[in-house]
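A sample copied in:

***
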Amino acid sequence: MLMLGAAVGGCAEQSDKGPSGSSAKHTKSHREPEDKPDSRVVEDDDDHTVLELSDGRQVSLRFTRRGLEAQHRDASDDAWSARKTVYETGTKPCHGIRAKAYRDTVWLAAGFGDSCRDGEEPQEVIAAVATGDLSSWTTDPAKSHTTWPKAHIRDGGTRVDFVDSSWVYTTTLTWRKGSGFAEAVTEYKPIHSWYVGRWRATDGSQQLTFHQVEPGRWARVVIESLTGPRCKGSAIVTGTNQYNLSMTNFKLDQGTKTVNCPPDVLRYEFDVQSSDGPLRLRKIGNHPKTVLTYERVG
């Protein structure tokens, strides 16, 4: 991972709009109202969870050799319903089943992996929802290696958002009553506008072009040599302020990799001091040394 740091400038320089015309704002997303879960967990271990709803009904969720199964019973009935398969798989389960409910809407998240209980990441991740008489479950196996960490209930129990959020992206998987699960949507956080645009090395050796995030796409940087052997490629860049940016997953598109195309991610970093630059490539260490300086050209 290559760290791109913007040196701290004066307060007057901390603008969200750079000379390139980029107007990407770093605003907090609007928080939609949520319904607070009203269930309680009455039994819980690595393989089994029993949830009690606000009306007294109980839901039993259990890992088996066949996957994940569910049963339910009324508040006044000692008899459990027949077992219902929520998710069928031969993969071993991870630790625990996370489940909550609001009124008659119950949701859960669980993971499966051959070595999951030995500390490995899950290979299969599911989110599931049941509502009404709890006789059927709607399940969406997500192509993810991280179990959904959060779920938010909205619209009186008719919508559940499963959310996986980090400092650079938020992925949301939404279930709605009547239509089930929609395709998961990932929103990437924009990079600071100081970086957006085209930069040319003052020695004429290469050019960098930073592109802002687009719907469903990371921000990217294109690195292109201007002298010597041909090298052109791109990488993902992520960051949430003007003081640091990370570069990963460089992909060579033309030519061959050369010196600083891309820079060694463990030995170099970028920094920019103000909204109009300059941008510098610096060698990391006790005595940082500027290797290349770039001027904004677009």
Confidence is low (pLDDT under 50) at residues 1-29. The CA atoms of residues 56 and 75 lie 5 Å apart. The chain has no helices and 23 strands. The two ends are 26 Å apart (CA to CA).
